[in-house]
């Protein structure tokens, strides 16, 4: 047993830390559903608009089997499950924001999962989680990403093996304009939350986050990082910058940087690729996409501008606390 | 020797058809550079604006080696080369359009290339090609994609083996609003161009194109397909629809559909993934990205609308000629 793995059902864990033994899936589910509700309520109060709530069930037949086109998506990776996607578009604070809960299971894992963990091959598995991406309208407010997930792989019947399970999660910020005090405050909050789990937990999880949210094809971090975390801090990401005035210039920069967000999520993000490869629900997976995005050839902000400062000062791995 | 492979240095070939024997790389290069020039000239005359021409050389040190971040990009996949990226943004006809020539070589192929062809492991290789993506401003004009590429893998010294080489190429259309006569005309032109290579060539290359340009995670084709082709037809894709009036409604639909284009290119396109994995030049690879893109949750056009017709009638594999 690993100290970081299941001190409580809401304990958090490096996704690399794996545990075996009994585990109460339904208690985890109840906690996750409550977490989603709590965040939806808090954001509705902030924004003044209501989320659209879209419950979904996984179809029993994979899309690829209905179509004769192309090579099939890995099947039958998923055998059942469903979720609740909560989405807000066109809000005063949130131009597009989604919080999804999902709980799916299957008889066989896609290659993206078993490549790193061959011991999972052949196991029946269950995954559940809450995932959040908020794209604020105001370019001075960062995009926020957060997720908590729980995974359990049951042993092959009669093998006498134990279930393998773990929690994973992360939280990070992607600013379009940087503010020293906001970055420090965010990382301080993360560090404080992780203190009970040992002095090395925050630096270790921060480094892992810096490594993960990195666009290899651009040699560039996605944002200012964050951590893999314990418990949810209040979503105060918007308070300080909400009244900050902006115009076309800032919106245009935001749209270009949102392009990087798209590139990361579609090219490198393991959660997205796992979902798309395993025949997950596309609209729920891609609720992370920003609302309005631009690409321009070889764009470089004017030297000395606030846009250039984002790249030179904020989008570099940095010790914030 | 395969009849479809090297009847001439500008002959075209199914990328699956592989040939061995001597080959004149420099003649292929000359032809490709001329092809790019010819298309740039034709499009400048159509658009009334000039392309920006950006010659580039591959840096000898991979990005990943300059940075301590993250796992390294496969290295040293590329050892040299360069290209010429021609890009036009904000034109009257083309909101964003690029035509790239590149010629790169390396000592080791990335896994995306050797997975399907294990006989290439360990070989020194050279790849060159011209790639074109045109995103017109007018939503009634389709996005056009075209590429021709040439690949040669040299034998390991002293092995006595022959070089392995092939041509590949393709051309396809992605309309935002469908026109029966345009689709039929486009496919007729493709079929006529391929007639000299046998009666089964067009249907075979069309089917392959339909299969390839398919968004598995949406169960949806990217466009109306096309073929893997022989010689370049004049770029008349815009002539018929250039004066077609449009407003916010059509621009908004175009932006949503461009999101699908992004999803295909970043999640499924082998050329893009090969480029990004092998440390290729990101700005040249991603010149295929559309200029303005939108994502909206679970968007469905009104039944009976022209937008709904695109999905039900045009974005289904269909016999156009």
Highlighted features:
eight-stranded antiparallel β-sheet; 11 strands; 23% strand; 321 residues; globular; homodimer; oxygen-dependent coproporphyrinogen oxidase; 31% helix; disordered N terminus; alpha+beta
Walkthrough of the structure:
The structure is a homodimer of 321-residue chains. The first copy, chain A, is α+β, with helices and mostly antiparallel strands and 321 residues long. Chain A has a single domain (5-55, 78-314), classed as Coproporphyrinogen III oxidase, aerobic (oxygen-dependent coproporphyrinogen oxidase). Helices cover 31% and strands 23% of the residues of chain A. Chain A has nine helices and eleven strands. In chain A, the strands form two sheets. In chain A, strands 1, 2, 3, 4, 5, 6, 7 and 10 form an eight-stranded antiparallel sheet that branches. The longest helix of chain A is centred in the first third of the chain and has 23 residues, at 25-47. The first copy, chain A, starts with 18 loop residues before the first strand and ends in a 7-residue tail after the last helix. In chain A, 44% of the residues are buried. Chains A and B meet through helix 2, strand 3, helix 5, helix 6 and helix 8 of A and helix 2, strand 3, helix 5, helix 6 and helix 8 of B.
């Amino acid at each position: 047993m690993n100290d970081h793995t299941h001190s409580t059902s809401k304990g958090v864990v490096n996704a690399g830390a794996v545990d075996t033994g009994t585990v109460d899936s339904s208690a985890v589910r109840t906690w996750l559903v409550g977490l989603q509700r709590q965040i939806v309520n808090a954001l509705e109060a902030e924004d003044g608009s209501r989320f659209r709530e879209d419950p979904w069930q996984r179809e029993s037949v994979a899309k690829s089997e209905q179509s004769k086109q192309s090579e099939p998506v890995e099947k039958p990776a998923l055998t059942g499950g469903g979720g609740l996607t909560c989405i807000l578009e066109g809000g005063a604070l949130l131009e597009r924001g989604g919080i999804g809960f999902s709980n799916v299971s299957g008889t066989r894992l896609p290659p993206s999962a078993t490549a790193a963990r061959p011991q999972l091959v052949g196991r029946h598995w269950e995954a559940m989680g809450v995932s959040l991406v908020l794209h604020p309208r105001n370019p001075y407010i960062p995009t926020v990403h957060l997720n908590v997930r729980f995974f359990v792989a049951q042993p092959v019947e009669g093998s006498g093996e134990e279930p393998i399970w773990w929690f994973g999660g992360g939280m990070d910020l992607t600013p379009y304009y940087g503010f020293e005090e906001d970055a420090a405050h965010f990382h301080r909050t993360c560090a404080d939350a992780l203190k009970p789990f040992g002095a090395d937990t925050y630096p270790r999880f921060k480094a892992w986050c810096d490594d993960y949210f990195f666009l290899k094809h651009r040699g560039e971090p996605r944002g200012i990082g964050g951590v893999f975390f314990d418990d949810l801090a209040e979503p105060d990401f918007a308070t300080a910058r909400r009244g900050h005035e902006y115009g076309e210039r800032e919106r245009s920069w935001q749209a270009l940087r949102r392009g990087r967000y798209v590139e990361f999520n579609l090219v490198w993000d393991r959660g997205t690729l796992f979902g798309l490869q395993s025949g997950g629900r596309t609209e729920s997976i891609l609720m992370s996409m920003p609302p309005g995005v631009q690409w321009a050839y070889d764009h470089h902000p004017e030297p000395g501008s606030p846009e250039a400062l984002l790249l030179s000062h904020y989008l570099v791995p940095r010790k914030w606390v």
